[in-house]
Each structure stands twice: as C-alpha cells, then as structure tokens.
Amino acid sequence: PMSNRRRHTGSRANPDPNTCLGVFGLSLYTTERDLKEVFSRYGPLAGVNVVYDQRTGRSRGFAFIYYEHIDDAKEAMERANGMELDGRRIRVDYSITKRPHTPTPGIYMGRPTHNGGGSSSSGGRRRESNYDRGYDRYDRYDEYDYRYSRRRSPSPYYSRYRSRSRSRSYSPRRY
DNA sequence: GTTGAGCGTT
C-alpha cells in the first residue's frame, strides 16, 4: 500500500526544507557572531553553530543556522546562498542532519535510582536548549553519520608494504 | 591571515 511507500525525502543533493540551514565554504575566520549578524536579517534565530576541528580548534569552514520559523529559513536559504562572506562565496542549503548528536539516546532520563530519589518517572527532566525543541523526531541516525564516521583505513600507502617493494626495486635515478 | 570538498558528537 501507500503507507509504506517512502515519501521522497530529501536527498543529499536536495534536502527538504527545514528550519536548520547548513552553510558551507565559510572563511575560517567567520565566527558565529558574524553568522548571527548576517542570518538574523531573515528572521529570529534559535541558534548558530560553527563546526570546529576538535584538535586545532579552528573552524572547519561550515556552520549550521537554526531558525525559529521555517519561512525565515526558506528566505535565508534563497537570499544568502551564494553571497560573499569574508571573501568567500558561501553555499547555504537546508541541513541534512539536524543536530550534532543525540546525547545518550534511549537511556533512562529520569532521576538517578540510587539515593532513594524514589519517584520513578515523570520527573524526567529534559534538556531545554534552543536546539532541542521540535527536533526529536529527526533523531534517527542517518546513514550519513555512519558513512563518515567509520572510515578508518590504515592508509596502505605508507605501510612497510610499500617501502619494502620500494627498496627491492633499484632506483633508476637518472640525472 | 593556507590555497577549500564538505553535513555536525567542543
């Protein structure tokens, strides 16, 4: 029947309209404050996240903009896409992923059971950040996350394999 | 002020 026919949901190339925008091609020097200034022109923001490299702490050159209203997101996406920011042409699109990660999904969110907190439930205090409202239904782990996170191959090119086969063959070095 | 394809777990 139709019910399990999968609705044509956004692809990577064509994400569905959404209150979260991904901004790519940023200058490394564009800050969240800069983005806030620019993107709040189209409507109230719920948040801005520049993605930083965990090691170097530098921007990875892309960010996510959260709008309160999807209409503002639409407008921002149309008007800000291709605009120049800090000398770089930025690409703005609806985000594929909705949030960095779900903190401990599917675990008990109530009070700690040790200490006789007693009441088993309902006290489950949920986090109330800007990003938490209304995004829970997007919490499925998309395929993308896995694809990008599990790629850890021990780069064959610098292994002893190569150096061995290298050293066995004499080097023709012509001058 | 790295030159830049890309969708995030501070």
From TrEMBL:
Chain spans, region Disordered: 97-135, 152-175
Keywords: Acetylation, Isopeptide bond, Methylation, mRNA processing, mRNA splicing, Nucleus, Phosphoprotein, RNA-binding, Ubl conjugation
Basic residues bias locations: 161-175
GO molecular function, one term: RNA binding
Subcellular location: Nucleus
Domain (RRM) ranges: 19-97
Biased composition annotated in UniProt, kind: Basic and acidic residues: 125-135
One GO location term (cellular component): nucleus
Source domain of life: Eukaryota
One GO term of the biological process aspect: RNA splicing
Assembly information from the UniProt record: Binds to A3 enhancer proteins SRp75, SRp55, SRp40 and SRp30. Interacts with ILDR1 (via C-terminus) and ILDR2.
Function: Sequence-specific RNA-binding protein which participates in the control of pre-mRNA splicing.
Family listed: Belongs to the splicing factor SR family.
Protein name: Transformer-2 protein homolog alpha
Source organism of this protein record: Cyprinus carpio carpio
Lineage of producing organism: Eukaryota, Metazoa, Chordata, Craniata, Vertebrata
Span covered, complete protein: 99 to 273 of 273
